[in-house]
Amino acid sequence: MGCDNKQRPHIFIMKYYVTKTELKIVDGKLIGTETILTKPSEESAAIEGARRFRALGTENVHVVKHVAKRFRKLMREQNKRRKENPLTVADIAEMAKQAQDEICKDYEG
Asked: Which pLDDT band holds residue 3 (cuts at 50, 70, 90)?
């Protein structure tokens, strides 16, 4: 009934992920959004990922300890923001027309 030497204690490896924060003023209110950039991984991988995002010019990049409840909440919010205004073919056609008008204006002027 003693301690079995073959049993190993459970080792918990902490997970981390990279996020980006943005602050905007909308209608006089300060709005903050946090966007997840990577999936949870070991600390060294997350730090390297953050370094690479910063090297690409991304600002306000942070390494955050993975807490499942907070991570899922951020993912739900992020998915809602992404699905709010889906782009339609009409929107793309309008943007293409505006771009063409600007190009023609620059070419003529």
From this structure: low
**Per-residue pLDDT averaged across 53-63, rounded?**
95
What is the domain extent for residue 95? 16-108
97 located within any domain: yes
Side chain identity at residue 21, one-letter code: T
Structure tokens at 29: 């209110």
**3-state secondary structure labels for all residues of 18-67:** EEEEEEEEECCEEEEEEEECCCCECHHHHHHHHHHHHHCCCCCEEEEECC
Domain count, the chain: 1
Contact in structure between 17 and 41 (CB atoms under 8 Å): yes
Residue 54 lies in a domain: yes
Convert the pLDDT of each residue in 15-54 to its tens digit: 999 999 999 999 999 999 999 999 999 999 999 999 999 9
**Partners of 20 in the beta sheet?**
35, 61
The answer to whether position 4 is within a domain reads no
99 is a domain residue: yes
Question: pTM of the prediction?
Answer: 0.65
